[in-house]
Amino acid sequence: MLSARIRIAARLLAVAALAALTAGCFQPMYAERTDGTPGLREKLMGVDLPPIDKANASREARVGVEVRNALAFKLYGTATGMPPTHRLVIRFNTSKSSLIVDPSTGLPSSENYGIDAQYNLIEVVSGKSVMTGTTFSRVSYDMPGSYQRFARNRAVRDAEDRAANEIAENITTRLAAFFTAGT
């Protein structure tokens, strides 16, 4: 009985020692730096987002604006006024595919909307590309029937917005990793 308590106490002591040793290595990504170097938040605020090049008044242009707006909110929040240190150029293609087709009408009852995006982070001072990447998003939506055109259009638009937000989240995560680790 006594030896079991000693073993448990030794294990707890070992866990506490490991936690104390690794606590000095941990640094939150979004924490402010005390040494005067810019933190991750300031580095993300230095990313310029030029408009995504798509044909005006097209459905993809609206998705491009949605991606850009979601990225701006995730990178800057409500802050403005930082001079740009990097420029993020984004290109993307969209796709739709039918997942389920009603056998009686031959019309799709569920579809999949996808965005495949490529992005390039360019340093403003040197004009060199410092990071490139690709990401994708696939979201599904239900088709309410052939007689409900407004509901169908709204479902497509909602799927486009969800896919755009997912693309923005993926790019933001990749940018945060780049500015934190440098790779």
Descriptive account of the structure:
The chain has 183 residues and is an alpha+beta fold. The protein has 4 helices and 4 strands. It has a 4-stranded mixed sheet with strand order 1-2-3-4. Strand 1, helix 3 and strand 2 (86-101) form a beta-alpha-beta unit. Helix 3 (59-76) crosses helix 4. It starts with a helix and ends with a helix. 15% of the residues are buried.
Short description:
The chain is α+β, with helices and mostly antiparallel strands. The protein is built from 4 helices and 4 strands; from the N terminus they run H-H-E-H-E-E-E-H.
What is the secondary structure topology, with strand pairs?
Blueprint: H1 2-23, H2 40-45, E1 47-48, H3 59-76, E2 86-101, E3 108-123, E4 129-142, H4 149-181
Parallel strand pairs: 1-2
Antiparallel strand pairs: 2-3, 3-4
Helix pairs in contact: 3-4
